[in-house]
Amino acid sequence: MIRLPLQRLCPLAVLLCVASAPVTAQVDVTANAGNPGPVTYATLQLAFAAVNNGTHKGDVVMEITTDIVETGTAVLHASGAGAADYDSLAVIPAGGLPRAISGAMADGAPLIDLDGADYVAIDGLDVNGNSLTISNTNLSAVAGTSTIRFTGDATGNIVTHVTVLGSSTATTTTAAGTVLFSIGLATGNDDNTISHCRLGAAGANLPAKAISSLGSTASTTLYNSGIEISSNEIFDYWSAAAPSHGIYLGDGTTDWTISGNRFFQTGTRTQTGAAAHSAIEVASAIGNNNHVVSGNIIGYASAAGTGTYTFVGGAINSRFLPIRFSNAGTTSASSVQGNTITAISLTGIVGGTGSGTCGAFTGIGVSAGLVEIGNLTGNTIGSASSAGAITVATSNTSSVDVCGIYAPTSQAVQIANNTIAGIVASNSGTGRLEVYGIRAGSSPSAINTVQNNVIGTAAGPISNSSVSTSSRILGLYSLTAAAAITGNTIGNLSLDGGNVGTGASASVIGLWIASTSTLGNSIGQNTIRALSNSHPSAAVWVTGLHYNGAVSGTHLVQRNFVHALATPSTSATATVNGIYVQAGTTTFQNNMMALGTGLTANSPQLNGINETAAGSDNFYFNSVYIGGTGV
After folding, report:
1. Within a 10 A sphere around the Cβ of 552, how many other Cβ atoms?
2. In sequence order, what are the residues at sequence separation of 6 or more whose Cβ sits closer than 8 angstroms to the Cβ of residue 48?
3. Quick one: DSSP state of residue 596?
4. Can you give the pTM of this predicted structure?
5. What's the CA gap between 20 and 41, in Å, rounded?
6. Which DSSP category does 7 fall into?
7. Secondary structure class of 121 (helix, strand, coil)
8. Which of 160, 234, 547, 620 has the largest CB neighbor count within 10 A?
9. Is the Cβ–Cβ distance between 144 and 111 less than 8 Å?
10. What is the tally of helices (H) and strands (E) in the chain?
11. Structure confidence by residue, pLDDT tens digits, 414-426
């Protein structure tokens, strides 16, 4: 049988014709082969069954002419399975009014099941008064519970301009969700598109996952691949006691494009269990390669970009991680480009249980796998022009971290062109709060490439205030791997706390290199400015560039500009360092430090370059200016 390309689905002339047809029944079916119709069916389930048994063939159009309540799953089989013989099939509303297909399916059952079906278009139109809502009200956590399911090698299908609602409470690794991409038989469920849809809750019961993919891992040919999720509104996905996701990509998933979507919550969400909440999560090394996550907006309380995405924590390890690669593949890099994460509020008890977890909030996180972040188009986390675009106000008694971008993967890291700004963090509890703009670390055999990022701006500063005297703020931290850190602008970072740590434990550090690699560090042309600790009397340290490298290999730190570092502390041992060298064998050349401006007579100790290193360093042509009133 000849298969039609996607552009042959629902030609515009056909859509306009059927959309204006008079309202005569519930589902009117026409076709250009077999029984041409129109034939009327009471439900979509019966209309699909007529196609499955060969009644209607060729190009089939199904008009939804009034609201339908389904009592069982509407299953469409593949053309060629049994008597089914169709080239394309369209489901559209008609009559110039909103239409709905709804029902409370049995546990583990979808409302619409595309079982091997190809070249199906479910199009709500959204023109001339026509629209379509599809809703399964079942709350079941049983596998298979969904509103629309793609299974058995369903390929080349489109769902567009449709409101798709569900309420399944299935856990993360259970194959369920409002839209579910399930297991294939020979090729996987490939090249399907969900676009311009609204995916939300069926009534007051929120789904744990809006879109979920859990495919077969028996072979690479069975992965669910080539899926496009674009320009949708994905909202009100939530589970109070368990992980929840807007989009969850599990085993047997590869080569997805997730672009131009809006993720938001229309109400305050309170987490009662130790679980992570994410807009997008890639969660398995099996098949998870070459995903593109681009141009999405995560935040706000509406699709119009108003209000605030509000998360209230009630347990340690309750976390909000908007874009998360918890386990991605390494065959080819996934790409995270041009996303905006903003208008978010976290309060209560949130976050991890110790240092390095970045547990309360991480805008973009990569725990495992090969992922490029912003190298083509930079992402924005917070806002360069608005203070407090992201607020984290915890009440933890244990330690917690907050990160703009966190990539502790063992693979090479590439983070470029991103803006992390407008973040206000505080902790009213006794636990340490540590805030990072970017934290990246990979193995000594890999390279952290971090270039041309902006961390903190004058209009969008990053601040940390906390009761704990061990709290800190750090602009960019590169650890373990070789560091290629160039062209970054780090500034307007402030801490309101009495941390008296020195050296690597300093309370404020703009750029911290802690590399054990012998491959060679290259730290150049970074601007580090406007760092401060506002404590009036503690022996605090503020350091522009902290360097700790290997004692072998060739390493270069050059052409960095450090200026406007400050503290009002009256302590005789409060210290400001332009560059602090802890360890390594490195050449420092053509760096510029300007310190003292804005400080009072009670100035801290000022060091343009402070070397306590074990190793052999070279210092060539560096410039240090120390000035200011009373210095």
Report:
1. 11
2. 74, 75, 76
3. -
4. 0.94
5. 19
6. G
7. strand
8. 234
9. no
10. 2, 61
11. 999 999 999 999 9
